[in-house]
Write a structure and sequence with these properties.
By secondary structure, the chain is of the alpha/beta class. The chain folds into 2 domains: 205 residues, UDP-n-acetylglucosamine1-carboxyvinyl-transferase, Chain (Alpha-beta prism), CATH 3.65.10.10; 210 residues, UDP-n-acetylglucosamine1-carboxyvinyl-transferase, Chain, CATH 3.65.10.10. It is 30% helix and 26% strand. It contains 14 helices and 24 strands. A 4-stranded mixed beta sheet has the order 22-23-1-24, with helices on one face. A 4-stranded mixed beta sheet has the order 2-15-17-16. The chain has a 4-stranded mixed beta sheet with strand order 4-5-3-14, with helices on one face. Helix 8 packs parallel to helix 12 and helix 10 packs parallel to helix 12. The longest helix is centred in the N-terminal third of the chain and has 13 residues. The mean pLDDT is 95. Bound molecules: uridine-diphosphate-N-acetylglucosamine (UD1).
Length: 423
């Protein structure tokens, strides 16, 4: 396993280009198997999760190629309808194949995704939504076994759960509804830009979807879908992470070819801390300061503050002047990074789903361990700002979700080495 060795204290300056959004491309690749012909997807980031999804598509029988950021998927020879544990265990987003598989062949056998480091990840909403469309679902030996009774049939579906809407449940139900008989109304649909991106891809495939971007989707089922060409939207979480890298090192970083409109809640919070932001149609520039103010953050479904930026924001607020309270409303247990940030000198305590972040003057390099994708990014940010050397083990988590992460950071002046871990 590799680790990062970061020499902290370098001021980051310059610009990077946003990569395609991980959370768009995964359900889009999954949806491509519903078509009668091949699809071409551009702006695909080279991520471990993307590689895993392509492996699953190949396992199912699809022909796949990935060159220079473009993926072609020809699903004509798809002849399997199961996703084994080996795949699902490394990438929970493989659940986004459930709806497309049912749409394609009426059957799907899926290893049940277990709990994970960011907390329990139930799939009751996926099951409820698909059952409404006429799918029989049972759980046996750790597998979800789903089969349509006759044809998929449109219905009214209220998809809200205890924590609000679900991104991938919306993706699954929308995909299955695209080819269901009649009209489906999904109430309390997730409004994340990645869901709109998937919906726009489905529309290019011939689907009839109204209300894209709103919590009420109306889907008029069509008989079949064709292959389509699509460019994935920029990754808003990657964009936010690089802007925070600029701010936490008191530097000046711009992210180009991003979509500022997808980062409203994040930019609002950054400006509350006193950081200067300049945003245009497709770029955001952040000018760091020597000192910044604390602020309170509540993570929520889009357009609220994204849970996927919570850990990185916490790293930044750990150096703010004052106390910040971060309330995690999407995954209330998503605080695994707190202990590691404290090892770097942060002063963060937990009270249920709230983290109380008392700003400190400095962070100090230490040995820490990455535990999940965004928690790892938070440790990198803290390491960049810390005095001295930070060693981060288990960095493979980062490569699940950040395209050329260290290259991009180094192009801004960060001093990061990747080396074999000794522990
Ligand atoms: C997606 C994102 C992930 C992000 C999350 C929340 C992808 C590939 N992953 O994950 O990066 O952190 O959205 O923005 O897009 N829930 C239920 N029942 C369900 C499903 C979810 O109660 O059947 C709950 C979850 O436990 C959580 C909340 O709903 O509390 C939101 O989860 P959800 O939106 O489903 O996350 P994912 O789609 O898995």
């Amino acid at each position: 396993m590799d680790r990062f060795v970061i020499e902290g204290g370098k001021i980051l300056k310059g610009s990077v280009t946003a990569s395609g959004a991980k959370n768009s491309v995964l359900p889009i690749l999954a949806a491509s198997i519903m078509a009668k012909g091949a699809s071409v997807i551009h702006s695909v980031p080279d991520l471990q999760d993307v590689r895993t999804m392509l492996k699953i598509l190949q396992y199912l029988g699809a022909k796949v190629s990935f060159k220079n950021g473009t993926v072609e998927v020809d699903p004509q020879a798809v002849n399997k309808n199961d996703a084994p544990y080996e795949f699902v265990k490394t990438m929970r987003a493989s659940i986004s194949l459930l709806g497309p598989m049912l749409a394609r062949s009426g059957k799907a056998k899926f290893s049940l995704p277990g709990g994970c480091i960011i907390g329990p990840r139930p799939i009751d909403l996926h099951i409820k939504g698909l059952q409404k469309l006429g799918v029989d679902i049972k759980i046996e030996d750790g597998y979800v076994i789903a089969e349509t009774k006759g044809k998929l049939k449109g219905d009214y579906i209220f998809l809200g759960g205890a924590f609000g809407s679900s991104v991938l449940a919306t993706a699954n139900v929308m995909c299955a509804a695209a080819v269901a008989k009649g009209t489906t109304v999904i109430e309390f649909a997730a409004c994340e830009p990645e869901i709109s991106d998937l919906a726009n891809f489905l529309v290019k495939m011939g689907a009839r979807i109204e209300g894209i971007g709103s919590p009420c989707l109306v889907i008029k089922g069509v008989k079949s879908l064709r292959g389509a060409e699509h460019r994935v939207i920029p990754d808003r979480i990657e964009t936010g992470t690089f802007l925070l890298a600029g701010a936490i090192t008191r530097g000046c970083v711009a992210v180009e070819k991003c979509q500022p409109i997808h980062l409203g809640a994040f930019l609002e919070k950054m400006s509350e801390t006193g950081i200067e932001i300049c945003a245009g149609k497709d770029f955001i520039e952040i000018k760091g300061k020597n000192e910044w103010k604390s602020t309170d953050v509540v993570t929520l479904a889009y357009p609220g503050f994204p849970t996927d930026l919570q850990a990185q924001m916490m790293a930044f607020l750990s150096l703010a002047d004052g106390v910040s309270i971060i309330t995690e409303k999407v995954f209330p247990e998503r605080f695994i990074h707190v202990g590691e940030l404290n090892r770097l000198g942060a002063s963060i305590s937990l009270d249920g789903s709230k983290a109380i972040v008392k700003g400190v003057k400095n962070l100090f390099g230490a040995r820490v361990m990455a535990s999940d994708l965004r928690a790892s990014a938070a440790l990198v940010l803290a390491g960049l700002a810390a005095e001295g050397t930070t060693h981060i083990s288990r960095i493979y988590h980062l490569f699940r979700g950040y395209h050329k992460f260290e290259e991009k950071l180094m192009s801004l002046g960060a001093e990061i080495k990747r080396e074999k871990d000794t522990i």
